[in-house]
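Prompt: I keep going back and forth on a fold encoding question. Comparing notes only helps if you start from a blank page. Show me how you would write down a chain together with its backbone fold. Please set it down just below, with no commentary around it:
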Amino acid sequence: MTGRGGTGAPYPTARRDDRGRPPRAGPSAAVRSPGRAAAGTRGRDDGAARPAAVLLGILLPVGIGVVVVVFRWWILAAAVTLLVGAGVVVAVVGLCVLTGVYLREVHRVMFLGDHPGEPSSEEREDPAHRGYHGGPAWWDLCAVAGRTWRASALWGVLLLPHITAYALVVGGYLAVAWSLAGLLRLVDTGLRTVRRIRMVCPECYRRLPYPSYLCGRCGRRHDKVRPGARGLVRRRCRCDRTLPTLILLGAADLETLCPHCDRPLEHRPGESREFPLPLFGGTGAGKTRLAAGLHLALSQAALRDPNAYVEPVGEEAARSAREGARALTPGHRTRPTPPGRKVRAATVRLGAGRRTLVLQVFDAAGERFNRSTTAEELTYLGEASTFVLVVDPLGIPAVWRCLTAGEQGRLAGERSHTRDPELAYGAVRDEIQRQWRALGRGPTGSRLAVVITRADLVRGTSVDPAGTAVEEWAGRRLGLGNLLAAARADFGSVRVFLTSSVAGPDWRADPSLDVLSAWLLERQGRAFAALTSAPVPADVGGGDP
């Protein structure tokens, strides 16, 4: 199709916008004015400038804040410093106040005596005050902690370091104190073991681990006096008198009691070695006379040495010492020991140089050795290691028959009507072995002296031992061969002695008693064995009859 005018040119096609609408009426784009074009361009630039304006609005206050902070930093620093300083001051003041409360309670408890009292106990339990390590140290710690907590309420948590330090100090003190107590006990026990000190009551015959002591001021009885809760080196009685806790520190000088039978112990147990020496044999065999002869021999031996002494201990030993010389008078009839009498050791303290020995001689009535039931009462047999069997040769029927009629008539009044010595030996031997088994001991180290008395009477008779060894004479002429053979099987060492318990005209003990004493004491130290084996000078005599 051709347009108007006949030129043949086609009509232009009408263009549409993006939404399909026809263009607005008006001049064509080709004939628009330059001003219109410029206006369209500015409209497009305003839309692009809007984000920059928003960014500028944000950065401007931030920049102002940065400038204020940078140039006014001391304001913030001052505020923070003020807060921290106030907190530190408050904390220091509060801690000082709490520490003052703690120190106040410590002062009240430790120095003003406002502490828990010692729990009351029975006088019989232990009449001594507790040492500070035996309870009061912990009681004071608990008192300080409890009172401080009540005074400071929940703020007391801040004092946990103080209480912890206090507890560590108390714990260290208790560790040192109890270690010292254990060391002192170990040293005390070790020294007694090395010196072979065993304490035996001469009344009830029981071994004493430690005696009981009486306070010299109030008379209260203190048991178990050892380093421990009641004191380390000294303990304080309820009357405020102090007593030593160790024998090494003078405890042996106190008045002592047996903790089992409550009888006084005059020989100061624990200070010196104790040597229990049981004598046994038939009735009238001469045990009491032999004990008196041994005492006289030891006393005269001590007179020969200026560094030696013999000291009777207790009434029993003092009585034996007074009657000993008279009992050894030729022709004197010694009264037999009453069968029902309580056997109490005659105790003698024997000193030689720096050594001291407590000799306990037990002389029981011969009737006690006739039956095993009565021998069981002699519990001291298990504590001894050396024994003396006393045999009267005139009381043996076979020996008596060997004497002539004249000899029998002359010696009839001196003869003891005792039973066969083997019967007494068997009863005592069985009891010794029974007690040894109970104590876990054996015959190793044990010794038996078979003492044949009346040597002054048998000399010059039909059974005179002159020219014959004592052991051979006892086995063949006295018929003690079986007894000696059994004794060697039952004891570690056996020796036979022939003695005469008769004082000479100058009141000297018979030399045979010196030989017997030397053998009995030879294991107690050379000083004691040498004491009795020294020669007897002519100018040394005994006491008055």
